[in-house]
Amino acid sequence: MSSTELPETAAAAAASTAPRVAPVAVAEGERLSTVELPGLTLTVRARPGARTGLPPALYVHGLGGSSQNWSALMPLLADVVDGEAVDLPGFGDSPPPDDGNYSLTGHARAIIRLLDARRRGPVHLIANSLGGSVATRVAAVRPDLVRTLTLISPALPEIRVQRGALPTALMALPGVTPLFTRLSRDWTAEDRTRGVLALCYGDPASVSDKDLGAAVTEMERRLQLPYFWDAMTRSARGIVNAYTLGGQHNLWRQAERVLAPTLLVYGGRDQLVSFRMARKASAAFRDSRLLTLPDAGHVAMMEFPEVVARAARDLIAQADAS
């Protein structure tokens, strides 16, 4: 199997790439770069390791997120990995893919192509939510690219969907996104941001005024992108479609095929991925360890970065020592 041979799904209609509307925020110690691949342009946020020769790590965000979601965790691991966080196609500062493919397979193929092009594998792959399902598929089909796998609230199929995840599922239905955009046209960027924080954080009040302001600024930037809702809708549809796949492409079957040592992180207050899935995931990944955080929501790496960093550090140290 070649590096890009993953199960094909019907390509979405081609999305046009718009000019940048504003620069994205870059934290001190980070740097942005652009990786040009045939039909695909990816923005990569780098947090170089504290010294040369450290093993590479790649961070993958969730639906509606970006590489900025890792700015709290990356410096805490900079002494053990040379970290890079990618903006998935159509998110963050990455423009849409030329083929309009936002399926789970399309996102996984983008990660594989990035790693192959830069020859950074095997990496310590760290992912959240949608990124967790993407990373699971990458680890299953290309074990040579993944040294360890850290999954924070991974979006794996659930029979009983969390109430908070229903809007994402509904977004996948034709006509729902245009209706929502009409109904929410009077919402400010701050309204939308506070709604996202209430959904994703175990304790939204823990977000500082500074971080809230930065999140509002980023929301304002995203809302100016003409492809923002298209990327959200098609990626949501990609998750729903992936949940229905059977056979070898089923995500739980692929989890069972993962060879890399795996850290699973679940939040007790997660409104999008059920805390009860932790036990099933722990049984599915053959070489796994589980970290449960009762007070965390969907983005534990942003709410409790120190705790997540300690667990990831232990996993990385054990793997690199073997």
UniProtKB/TrEMBL annotation:
Residues 1-20 are annotated as: Disordered. Keywords: Hydrolase. Residues 58-311 form the AB hydrolase-1 domain. Pfam families: Abhydrolase_6 (PF12697). Transmembrane segments: none annotated. The keyword Hydrolase applies. GO terms for cellular component: membrane. It comes from the Bacteria. Gene3D superfamilies: alpha/beta hydrolase (3.40.50.1820). The keyword Cytoplasm does not apply. GO terms for molecular function: monoacylglycerol lipase activity. GO terms for biological process: acylglycerol catabolic process. PANTHER family: MONOACYLGLYCEROL LIPASE, MONOACYLGLYCEROL LIPASE ABHD6. This is Alpha/beta hydrolase. It comes from Streptomyces montanisoli. The lineage of its organism: Bacteria, Bacillati, Actinomycetota, Actinomycetes, Kitasatosporales.
